[in-house]
Design goal:
This protein has 8 helices and 13 strands. With 246 residues, it is α/β, with parallel strands linked by helices. It starts with 15 loop residues before the first strand and ends with a strand.
Amino acid sequence: MSHPTHPPALSSKRPLIYVVEDDLAVARLVIHALEGFGFDVEGFHDGSSVLRQLPVARPELCVIDLGLPDMDGIELVRQISSRNNCGLLILTGRGHTFDRVMGLEIGGDDYMVKPFEPRELVARVRSILRRRAAVTLPTGAPQRRYASFVGWTLDCAANTLLAPDGTPHILGTAETQVLRTFVERPHQILTREQLMGQRDLSPMDRSIDVRISRIRRKIEDDPQNPKIIKTVYGAGYMFTAAVAWG
């Protein structure tokens, strides 16, 4: 699929979205829906094409199919997540729980299964971008960058978690958003909706549980018996460590 032709970019700097999809009909549907809601969109038919373009122009978000002709989409999500701080929405025909969990584990912000409703896709894209903006510019408070707790330091601007021994861990945007919500409100019970920044979260949506599991594996001595991020059954989660900002 060749890259779609777009009019010259406007000075208002609309968010740039990359769509990586080898099915031309699906790609056109996604691109048309996103352009109709004010996004600038570039389409790619394989993983290598988008990897070559990433250093040239960084998107705010990538919509990625898992069934690509030149590489597995899971590997593409992994590479983009490790190289770029952009949102990642997986759009695929794979509905198995394993694929869904794996996609979220390696840095995906959200996961949609085909067939899909274009308006829902746009809503999910907007939700990811809102969460990313909330991580960068928290509303109603001065921007604070470094949060320290039990030897760990979270750099909210660089999406980096520094271990007590000095080892840096690069976090995905979704992980940073969840961890920042915790460190800004320690010793409080936070619901899954508060941690995801969404209302009316489906009881079947396990995205937040996957993200907390990833964070626990980094900061807990025993992730199966967590001491820092506690599960409050029937209510949500609580961050129990003292936090200092600098």
